[in-house]
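Complex record, two chains
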Amino acid sequence: MAAVITKPESLLYDGADWDYDKIKRVYDAIEHVALDEMGLNVYPNQIEVITAEQMLDAYSSIGMPLMYKHWSFGKHFARDEMLYRKGYRGLAYEIVINSSPCISYIMEENTMTMQTLVIAHAAFGHNHFFKNNQLFQQWTDAEGILDYLEFAKAYIAQCEDRYGHHAVERVLDAAHALMNQGVHKYPKKRSLDLRLEQKRERERQEYQEQTFNDLWRTVPKPTAGGARPSKTVSERKKLLGLPEENLLYFLEKKAPRLDHWQRELLRIVRHIAQYFYPQKQTKLMNEGCATYTHYTIMNTLHDKGLISEGAMLEFLHSHTSVVFQPEFDDQRFSGINPYALGFAMMQDIQRIAENPTEEDRYWFPDLAGRGDGMAALRDAWANYRDESFVLQFLSPHLIRKFKMFSVRDDAEDPYLLVENIHNERGYRQIRKMLARQYDLAFLEPDIQIVDVDLAGDRKLILHHRVTNGVLLDESDAKAVLRHIANLWGYEVQLVEVSAVSEAILKEHAVTAPSGMGA
Amino acid sequence: MNIIDRRLNPQGKSLANRQRFLRRAKEQVVKAVRDASGKRGIQDIENGEKVTISTGGVREPSFHRSGSGGVRDYVVPGNKEYVEGDTISRPEEQGGGRGSEGSPDGEGDDDFRFVLSREEFLDIFLEDLELPDLVKQKVKQSESHSLTRAGYSVTGSPANLNLVRTMRNSLSRRIALKRPKPAEVAELEDLLREAEDRGEDPEKLREMRDLLERHYLRAKRIPFIDPIDVRYNRFETVPKPIAQAVMFCLMDVSGSMTEHMKDLAKRFFMLLYLFLKRRYRSVDIVFIRHTHEAKEVDEDTFFYSTETGGTVVSTALEEMQRIVKERYPENEWNIYAAQASDGDNMSSDNARSAGLLKDAILPLCQYFAYIEVAAEHNMGLSALGRETELWRTYKMVQGPDLPLAMRRVRSRREIFPVFRDLFAREKAGA
């Protein structure tokens, strides 16, 4: 028994139980490491202790502390609850919200070591990423999101009271179906300010209420088929801002038969989709950053003698299971684990910066040997998203370590073809293809509204530009079109067009809904 | 940094979402519940239930690429033996190797499974059912009364004094009439004393004494609490609806009743009990079994002990009448009766039974359900419509205004439909 015995008084905590004093002490120690030694830059932190049931609650409302009410959240809750109660699935140790202050939920069941890990991971790792990554800076408003959700929740509840559950549900269902097609992918002129947004909406409504005059109702409506001459197609498209890939935006602004409140519901769903858009594009980096941060912090704490050997072993046990990557032929394989690849890439960048090999110098002339690994990482965290990050930083060393290979699955061939493996010839191809797997623009079908004849039959025409011959899932596409038709109020047509040859591959259409209207 | 303990926050934040979900999936959930309740024993019907519904009505569609067709590239880890140009035979459906694919929410077309709580299950299970003759029950409410709060009054007993109201009135009156506050008076007294000690100007001293005197006088004239301030809590007596019911289970236990028939009867009684239990605060059950004589027994004896003897139905009805007279006065209790029998009766007793039922029992009851249980296997025979003694007897009694319902049951599957049939909410105009 000649092991080194750390003096108990130097430890931040001992044993598994946690209390607020310990958390405070640990937080201060972590903060010191994170800010002074790693140079992280974070939003103020707010740590909230919750129970397992509240964690399930948070799951079902896509992780947000406030959310409007909708049956789909109830559905997810019912399923998550069953899986959890039957023991099929554990719960996350934490949830973190991109807001300022940055809210991290920690579960009361966690041991003290787990709480330490979670604080390092969420309150500093994710927090730093949220605050510094350019996608988040550009697309989300961390200060305003909670206020905006509060507004959205109240607004939707109010709509339910005024117009009935069914009417609200109908709009929300449709909006949810289009959520993936409800984001702006390129920045518009001004940045988002959700608080202003909220104020503006309130003012608009007040104005309408003040200027309401029942007389307008009695004014005869123009009969259909007015005598206005139809403009040329290109003029018309220009007027409507077509083609438009943000379907929710287009419907909100241009759908002829929606009420004001219905447009506002679409707007709310669109804002929420936009808020989550960066998270979808940075899953790998975000987790990689947080995992790297907690790993570094825990090791530093241990090196300083602030946590015990036992705590360190507990941490390593949980860390290794988080960054475990099953191989493709393993039963547990379900794609590449973002924690595993993210963490490995972060470590790799640091290695290349501080301790490069000849190969690294060839592949990363700018990065190799630049010395300060932490600075290189902070730089990467700020300026990349998953796709560009992989394309830029995935090294041959890692490709070999993960033994990556690429497979081509052509439906016309009876076999899958191994195209590239982890060798000199394959590195660049594999890197490119892997980057593509993280490219949302490539993953999600490219669907745009291309034409509508507002003066004529008002048929809305959408195009899906088909890449690699992969068509849309038919039954779902049909159901979504039904939703679009509900919002649009007239016939909707979706044409699947080959991106290469412009040939029409398939057409879907749904007729105008009956009985939608003001 | 802030640490906030949210553990004590109100639970069940997602309850509203759950209700919306159940409402949305109503049709399928109701069907699933019906199926489930057909399958399991009545005893555990009160537990929650894991139900499986098809994703039809609760699907959340989105535009996404289909799982087959076209050309796809995957990058996957863990190469062991492959080199470029190798071919791999296509894995079975659901095989691994789908790096970036997988349905958007991991669901596909599978059925959706979740657990209903006990309340939700029963709600759906018993929905649309209504107790017959609820109107009549309301007429019978006069006997008992309870007190409820009904505002405030200016008279009452000291025990009912409402201090808060009284003091509020008193305070506003004192302010309105400018009664000097005790603190003001005390301050003035202090000032006066100081001035006296200092030997102030006598003129000034007199002024102060006068002022103080006026304060004393005013405080005396304006009482702290005046009778007009006083308020009492007022109570009113309201008639209390009768929230208790008694359920009589009558069963023929003669040799001709098989275990299967008893089982059917038991299931029906259970359902009725469950149903009454949800509508009334307290439900008593009385078990009366009969052969050629009737006896009130406990539940175990009722269902599980066998007797031999003839079958005289009127004895059970007499016993019921006696018990009602003794313990369940009809103006205090809602009386329900369910009789289960295989339909045998002594022919000499038929007239007497019919008379008793019509003149004595039915006037007492809110509802009298007669369930004729038959063996599962002789379906053919009884399906031909050969009516039993008792069935014919009761059928003669049955009239449009009498709360008597009769049904035949042969198998466990039929219990619930029959039960629903008996208690289904009446269609408008029916």
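Note: Chain B is about 40% helix and 20% strand.
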